[in-house]
Design a protein that fits this description.
With about 400 residues, the protein is mainly α. The C terminus is likely disordered. The chain is globular. Helix 10 packs antiparallel against helix 18.
Length: about 400
Amino acid sequence: MYTLLLVLIYLAFISLGLPDSLLGSGWPAMHVDMNVSISLMGVVSMVISGGTIVSGLLSDRLTKKLGTRAVTVVSVFLTAAALLGFSFSGKFWMLIVFAVPYGLGAGAIDAALNNYVALHYTSRHMSWLHCFWGVGTIVSPFVMGYALTTSGWQGGYRIVGFIQLAIALILLVTLPVWKKAAVKTEEETPNKHTGLKDALKIKGVVFLLIGFFAYCAAEATAMGWASTYFSEVKGLTAERAAQFASLFYIGITASRFVSGFVTEKLGDKKMITIGTCILFCGIVLLAVPVKSYALAIAAFLTIGFGCGPIYPSIIHSTPYNFGAENSGAIIGIQMASAYVGATFLPPLFGLLGNLIGFWIMPAFLAAFAVLMIVMVRLTFKVTAKPDNEKQPTAENIDGR
């Protein structure tokens, strides 16, 4: 039963990843069709992230009141409706309207399931959870690339919207699985609600939030602007650039799959360090000034592979660093911090790209990668446990 529950959680994270790569891969064609500036993709992203910030901050309270299963199912239906709304949008303002429910749904499910897995499953399951998010992000650019050659970008959103709706229906009809698993997990989950002010007073939390902000700023920039980079810097067509946008997602998904086999042996801190080193290697490759796009392909794959273990390792270490009773609130705030980075920094990069040139991406990514690793290492330093207190293996609720 608990193995089936894990499968459903993985499926929910596929649904979370499906829309995340659609906007970036479709935008080179969307902005032309709507006759708006290329930099306005950042505005749509900002509205989506604004919704995720709000729902992320409220997620701990909502989850304790409604339960993880209810928050998950409602959120997936909400994002499905928003995607179908995108598919019928003919004006830019319509994208802004439907971006609101998409953001609200994505933030709630992200925070709720991340905390659930951090508390009840081992680190390998956290890596594989985010690997399945990557599966969703890989599928979408290919769907969008196909749609651009046939029915247009609206068709890409329509296809993904129906896939999302199907996942929501599967989650709805399998609600009894969540109910049976809830008997044990509710006994194990602390009922204490930690408020925002109290959470921010915990030693190391502010460092963690800054580090998470910086990481997600870099990830969202590489994720959202990869297609535009290939189009504007390497001179590829919008259709070809949309397909190459999946390179980052392929790298990050492959990395999280591989990480699941070694993360319990190495630990969260080492996985973050290794991922950061690989990330910098990818940034160096991207900075090599050659006209050919072959090296850029390798660069985005490497950047994605480096990013792979960072996000899940930071999330999974939260209950250990700050206590299980505080993890729900802190992970919710982490999600909000992440979305602030994803909200404001990609639009900033878009403005800089318009003013200076999109070739500045390597320097932009490097600056936030440095800030991320400094802040995360400070977090681990101030929350360090005694040498004889090793990081515990989270109890796996499927009994393995």
